[in-house]
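USER: Note each token:
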Amino acid sequence: MSTRRITVIPGDGIGPSIIESAIAIMDKAGCGFEYDFANAGLAALESDGSLLPEKSLQLIEQNGIALKGPLTTPVGTGFTSINVSMRKHFDLYANLRPVRSFVGTKARYEDVDIITVRENTEGMYSGVGQKRSEDGTSAEAMSVITRDGAERIVKFAYELARREGRKKVTAVHKANIMKSTSGLFLEVAREIAKQYPDIESEEMIVDAACMNLVMYPERFDVMVTTNLFGDILSDLCAGLVGGLGMAPGANIGERAAIFEAVHGSAPDIAGQDIANPTSVILASIQMLEYLGMEDKAANILNAVKDVIASGDRTTRDLGGTAGTKEFTQAILDRL
């Protein structure tokens, strides 16, 4: 059997160190990958003069799978978000953000297990019609939702729920006010729901969803929503389980899939061996599940759970005193 090649983008700030942890753990678990390293972000701007070099895009295209550390897009005009650029280039229409409670974290809840399925290419983040008046007194942007875009993301959510034995899909919207865009999304969600009678379907206005997530997170299973709402809701969900350090993300399309740590590059702690690598380790678990390597994914997840639950060599944000390497070694020892 030929070896599977994975494109790896170490990223900026703490990215290289946490990616190093994930690779060491996958190797220890016997995943047998070969890695092609690619640059993006500030590191690429310095070495290649571009935030997203063409050769990096080619490596992702070639392998179809990438594991990515956090990237920094310089603040200010003239720089498009690198993550948005990659999603558009490969039409990575589905953003998957699972969160689950881990015993041993400082999270406020013990029974959270939610997947947010976010449409990744349309809506307010599409960049359509963005402009400011010359005198700086007004600004506008356009949100575009298409029937095709809504259909494929809602179907993706239901297929995911069916595949993983999930019980319920909640369509989150604001159709009471945004009757055109959110109205179309909700209309499509209702149509698709009829095709999946085996799965409970509900709909919820986004502000009510935020309140209910904080009060009764155990009521949620799979949420599907548009781009802007999904961005906000998935970070709220991360807060339920201990923060962005405990939340992975996947961007999935027909041609490629990119798995990532969803937090920032944290340049203030880069190189200090104190970052928590859990987010990107969980992203690598997502990647293994996507590739059908469920046994390897389960072994790594159990090792991560055990380290965090025992408090053995955990990082500061998890209540311990260990650094990135020591925490990683604790997981390696269990594997």
About this structure: Residues 49 and 137 are 34 Å apart (CA to CA). The radius of gyration is 20 Å.
